[in-house]
Write a structure and sequence with these properties.
heterodimer; A: mainly alpha; two-stranded antiparallel ribbon; 25 helices; B: 497 residues; mainly alpha; two-stranded antiparallel sheet; 19 helices; globular
Chain lengths: 629, 497
């Protein structure tokens, strides 16, 4: 079955092709084609997974990656291949992406039911899933880059789904351009490796890296350049500005973007090219620092935002930064584990948020409160998701957070304590903002204007509850169950015992205590009301203003665009108009057209002219030849 | 002559000839209203012969009649390509013939005979055999281009084609005579050996070569021997225009490739620059004049003259890489041109118009046709993810690898120019509005068979652009066979790259 894994991304891609060509004629089939294809892909994932389990040879860590590729293009010595790379990391992603896409599509059936461009939504959604699936299976950097850009285009189309709304169009543009800036780095990094190794294939590149064929500068350079692409997609500082605005898309899109596609692509990329970070301490340190800065900043912003989806967006930033921290600390296990559990929890939370705004027509958490009375199931799902992401045991998010914190704890001196402090602080803040969000939306008093709010239908509730369950019990994956499964790291590294389950009870206790404290404080503040938040905010007014204005990063960028880029652009445009266009382009254009008009006169239509032309041609050939000799 | 000629290796040729006779004969017994049957018999017959030929000749490598006639994977590649082209033309003609031509039986049978001629051209190992097959093909095309008896333009096209064709045949034949006089043989292998022996090129040889170049240049429609092409393309029945543009060109290049790569390879230094210059001239001239055309058939005629320039690069560069590139460009050029020509045929069938402004608003009236034409034109211009990009990439890099960097540069400029006039047509289809009067708003219906052919060709254009490797693998074998028979080679890179 593994050699058929290419069907997993192909089926949704075919569904996309079907919908854009025949979707108008067969409108009722579009959602069926989309969801049907992703469902089959999801089923195929299990077959591939089972096949992989049978084929791999635990515990031989060298022997757990399967690569299938075909020659795509050969030009001289350069052979471009096109293939799949199946290992625990890509399998994890395949499972997560197909599951998330399937659940979210089922949810969208009723959420998007009244949209006039229902077919287009499902079409792009399918292509989005297909591109992401291709990305996580790519065995070479070229294919990865193509899929990477497709993911970017799909996110542009989906964020700008309500394109007649100005803010949505702006947000789509912002997302696309911001990530493109990082993508340039990724492309340069890929080309740098191609120049150095002569191939895009990961296996060959890793072999060259392991053999020491690449100089230290190249390794660090390539890693940092590709990291640029990763932090663009994963919205890490300084490219974080697009993600909160991406809320302008329909909520199911946000759910998919935040849980399984798009933003996690960056984390996946870092995990995929992890040998480079292993080999370069500088690159790892860059990764750690960016993760730490983003985590602190985003967690702070999540604390003060008032729009339900924006709080979730900043929490995504925080968790992505957490994954980056884990990877920077050298633990692919922790990064991927947090990616997986965050994916489940975030899907739950976004689908819940969609259900809330669907049922109450509100998005500002200050207008909510007590909603558990009118939408109990959503409250249950959202609550478990929030507690999980807030890092409260025994929910899944606690275990993954713990793995990350432990990985950071194992960093070597002298940075260990700095990053451990960051990780623990952010862990505490996660609990704070998640507590604030959940308590102020669902607990407390129900406002009279919200009494009409209603629970979502079963098609929306079912996927939500499935993700809730997965997120709640997913932490069990961390444990040492049998000899064949000794924790998630044992799986990721295919039986490497060093990565097996190894808890540190001190760390676990500390992070659990901080989570309990965080939820406790917010309980006091938002449920019992015994802790007044106003007075705290008043004491730190300047800081609060700074954070509420998102550290003015957007303003700085806007200033840079208006004052620097546009001015430079105008100058270049003038040169372009005056010289390049009028003289350089139109000049040859006019000459070409004029000569065409003249040369056509040669075509007289008379046979003897043509024959004469041939004779003259022959003579010209003969004379030219004679002359050349 | 060796006593044991393996005649059985000629089975594909016998079968194609037999099929032609069968169709001629069946024509007597099929009622006029049911002549469609003949097209199906012809197409199915060719398909069956392909299915038989491929496994039959797959690993054969032989030379019949003392080297007169070659059976190798190079010839096999072109045999299959020729028959494929034949099938496409026959199916693409179905509705056109039904509506606008008489004598359908002869029409299909003559196409089959011309397919046979094309197969023989690729297999010829000797100049006179090549000449005879070339004439067989030309006669068929003369008849076919005049097949619209009631259409004066068609008659004019046929007469011009015959007269100029006869003239060029004269040049070619005289050139062959001079070459025979100078080298003492007309066998490709023998010519190469003799060329190596002579040491230099004397006047007789030179004039002979120049005449052969002129004669072949006519068949290829290379500048300055191209002048017949626009008139014939415009006058001939639409599917036949496609056939001349694609089939006759493919066969002529099959022949030219063998001639230059095998017989004339030792004199490479003498002719390389000449062919390169001809290529440059052809691609610039064809594309520049195409800009000012207003009739879509004429525009495509000049565009295909320009394409010949690109193809000639593959001969000028003379390397395994260039041979691969030329063949893959021929395949891509065939599917792409068929997609465009048949889509235009469908439009013409429905409206009877073929000027560029007539295509205004086609995207609204016939989205499928407009899309097929657009895919085809973008491929011809060499945009990525389409056949034209991959094949041009190969051609240009082959030329650059052999030191013809300037030629690759000229080719890029020519491609750019071509994009301009292709976009003119695309602009008409997608941006301009359909004229209000004279049924401009009527949707253009495409019959199922024709739509299937167009769809298949457009799909082929995309597939070749996205995943060319299977075709390339076959082509590498063909090149290996071509080089295997080449006796004397200037120092070149390793074979089969």
């Amino acid at each position: 079955m593994m050699e058929l894994a290419w069907l997993i991304p192909s089926l949704p891609a075919i569904a996309f092709a079907f919908m854009v060509t025949l979707g108008k004629r067969l409108p009722n089939w579009s959602a069926i084609a989309a969801t049907g294809s992703i469902a089959v892909s999801f089923a195929l994932f299990f077959f591939v997974f089972a096949d992989w389990l049978g084929a791999k040879s635990f515990p031989h860590p060298e022997n757990y990656t399967f690569v299938y590729s075909i020659d795509w293009l050969r030009a001289g010595d350069a052979i471009l291949t096109w293939g799949m790379w199946i290992d625990p990391i890509s399998l994890t992603m395949l499972g997560l992406v197909t599951a998330a896409a399937l659940g979210i599509q089922v949810y969208s059936w009723s959420y998007m039911a009244h949209e006039p461009r229902f077919t287009w939504f499902f079409a792009v959604h399918s292509l989005f899933a297909a591109s992401m699936l291709a990305l996580v299976m790519a065995d070479n950097l070229l294919l990865l880059y193509i899929a990477w850009e497709l993911v970017g285009i799909c996110s542009y189309l989906l964020i700008g789904f309500f394109y007649d709304r100005r803010s949505a169009a702006e947000a789509a543009k912002k997302a696309f351009i911001t990530t493109r800036v990082g993508d340039v780095g990724l492309l340069i990094g890929i080309l740098l490796l191609f120049v150095e190794t002569g191939t895009f294939e990961l296996s060959t590149i890793f072999a060259a890296l392991a053999a020491g064929d690449l100089s230290e500068g190249i390794v660090t350079g390539a890693a940092v350049l590709m990291l640029l692409g990763a932090i663009g997609k994963s919205a890490q500082f300084p490219f974080h500005v697009w993600l909160p605005d991406a809320m302008e898309g329909p909520t199911p899109v946000s759910a998919l973007v935040h849980s399984a596609t798009m933003v996690v692509a960056g984390v996946y990329l870092v995990a995929r090219i992890f040998p480079f970070f292993e080999a370069s301490d500088t690159a790892s340190l860059v990764l750690l620092s960016l993760g730490a800065v983003t985590a602190m900043g985003a967690a702070a912003m999540a604390l003060v935002m008032t729009d339900i989806k924006r709080v979730l967006a900043y929490s995504t930033l925080t968790d992505l930064a957490f994954m980056m921290l884990a990877l920077g600390a050298g633990s692919v296990t922790a990064g991927m584990f947090h990616l997986l559990l965050h994916g489940f929890a975030k899907a739950t939370l976004f689908l819940g948020a969609g259900s809330v705004s669907h049922g109450s027509d509100k998005t500002d958490i200050r207008d909510m409160g007590g909603l558990r009375r009118v939408m109990p199931w959503t409250a249950l799902a959202f609550g478990i998701g929030a507690l999980s992401l807030g890092g409260l045991p025994p929910f899944g998010g606690f275990f993954s957070k713990d793995e990350v914190t432990l990985a950071v704890f194992l960093i070597e001196e002298p940075y260990r304590w700095i990053f451990l402090t960051v990780a623990l602080t952010v862990g505490f803040m996660k609990a704070l903002y998640m507590g604030r969000l959940f308590f102020s939306v669902f607990l407390g008093r129900l406002k009279p204007e919200n009494e009409h709010a209603h629970e979502a239908g079963p098609a929306m509730l079912a996927p939500m509850l499935v993700f809730t369950t997965l997120g709640a019990v997913g932490g069990l994956l961390a444990f040492n169950w049998t000899d064949g499964y000794q924790g998630f790291g044992y799986f990721v590294f295919a039986g490497d015992h060093q990565e097996a389950f190894h808890p540190n009870w001190w760390i676990a206790a500390a992070s659990a205590a901080l989570a309990v404290a965080g939820f406790g404080i917010t309980w006091l503040a938002y449920v019992t009301g015994s802790l007044r938040t106003d007075s705290i905010i008043a004491k730190v007014r300047p800081v609060h203003t700074l954070v509420a204005n998102k550290f003015y990063v957007d303003e700085v960028y806007q200033w840079g665009i208006d004052q620097v880029m546009l001015r430079a652009g105008n100058a270049v445009a003038w040169v372009d108009r005056a010289f390049v266009n009028d003289i350089g382009v139109n000049g040859p254009g006019i000459v070409t057209e004029k000569s065409g008009t003249k040369l056509r006169l040669l075509q007289s239509g008379k046979i003897y002219n043509y024959a004469l032309g041939m004779v003259l041609g022959f003579l010209a050939v003969a004379v030219a030849w004679w002359w050349a000799l | 002559m060796t006593p044991d000629v393996r005649f059985e290796l000629l089975w594909p040729e016998f079968l194609v000839a037999g099929l032609a006779f069968l169709v001629f004969t069946l024509d007597f017994f099929v009622r006029p209203a049911r002549k469609e049957v003949l097209a199906w018999v012809s197409a199915a017959g060719l398909a069956v012969i392909i299915a038989f030929t491929v496994p039959f000749l797959l690993n054969e490598h032989d030379s019949l009649f003392d080297g007169l006639y070659r059976v190798d994977s190079y010839a096999l590649f072109f045999k299959v390509l020729s028959m494929g082209i034949g099938i496409a033309v026959i199916l693409g003609s179905l509705h056109f013939v039904d509506r606008r031509l008489t004598h359908p039986g002869e029409y299909y049978a003559i196409i089959i005979v011309s397919v046979l001629a094309m197969m023989m051209m690729a297999a010829s190992g000797e100049l006179l055999t090549a000449y005879l097959s070339l004439e067989l093909l030309s006669f068929c095309l003369y008849i076919l281009s005049g097949f619209a008896l009631q259409d004066r333009r068609s008659n004019e096209a046929s007469v011009k084609y015959v007269l100029l064709g006869a003239f060029s045949s004269g040049l070619l034949l005289y050139g062959i005579v001079l070459l025979y006089g100078a080298l003492g043989t007309t066998h490709f292998a023998g010519m190469a050996a003799a060329l190596e022996g002579t040491g230099g090129v004397d006047g007789r040889l030179l004039v002979g070569l120049a005449l052969v170049v002129a004669g072949l240049g006519f068949k290829l429609a290379a500048v300055p021997f191209h002048m017949w092409a626009p008139d014939v393309y415009q006058g001939a029945p639409m599917p036949i225009t496609a056939y001349i543009a694609v089939g006759s060109k493919a066969a002529a290049f099959a022949l030219a490739l063998r001639l230059f790569y095998e017989a004339l390879a030792p004199a490479y230094d003498e002719w390389q620059l000449l062919i390169a210059g001809m290529a440059a001239l052809t691609m610039i001239f064809g594309n520049v004049v195409a800009i000012v055309q207003t009739n879509v058939k004429r525009m495509l005629a000049y565009s295909s003259v320009g394409q010949v320039g690109f193809l000639l690069m593959g001969i000028a560069a003379l390397s395994p890489l260039a041979s691969n590139a030329l063949m893959v460009h021929l395949v891509g050029y065939s599917v792409t041109n068929f997609a465009v020509f048949f889509a235009i045929t469908a439009f013409y069938n429905a409206t009877g118009k073929d000027d560029i402004p007539d295509f205004a608003g086609l995207a609204g009236r016939a989205p499928f046709l407009a899309a097929a034409i657009t895919v085809g034109l973008f491929s011809l211009a060499g945009l990525p993810f389409l056949a034209g990009f991959v094949t041009k990439f190969y051609l240009f890099s082959a030329a650059a690898a052999e030191g013809l960097l300037w030629l690759a540069g000229v080719a890029m400029v020519a491609s750019l120019i071509s994009l301009y006039y292709y976009l003119q047509l695309i602009r008409q289809m997608y941006i301009e509005r359909a004229p209000e009067d004279e049924g401009g708003s009527v949707t253009v219906a495409t019959p199922g068979v024709l739509a299937a052919v167009i769809g298949a060709m457009a799909l082929g254009t995309v597939l070749l652009g996205v995943y060319p490797e299977p075709v390339l693998a076959t082509i590498r074998e063909a090149t290996a066979a071509l080089l295997d028979t080449g006796s004397a080679w200037p120092t070149l890179g390793s074979a089969g790259q």
